[in-house]
Design a protein that fits this description.
69 residues, single chain, alpha+beta
Length: 69
């Protein structure tokens, strides 16, 4: 019975720490002729792979992303 509670406790701790929401602020300079030179800013918040994928998409589009800690 102790093993079961220990296993459940460890599982719950891992799930709680892996689901912490992370945020990043991504910025870029506009290429649109009507708004050329303006700084564009977008904040991304999420968890796990969804968050990582969003940051990767922005970085591949030449945005600079910095995490808020």
């Amino acid at each position: 019975m102790k093993r079961l509670f220990t296993l459940l406790g460890i599982s719950a701790a891992l799930m709680l720490t892996s689901s912490c929401e992370k945020c990043a602020t991504c910025t870029s300079v506009s290429d649109d002729p009507l708004t050329a030179g303006e700084t564009l800013t977008d904040e991304i918040c999420g968890t796990g792979r969804d968050y990582d994928d969003q940051v990767t998409i922005y970085e591949r589009a030449n945005w600079d992303c910095s995490t808020a800690e």
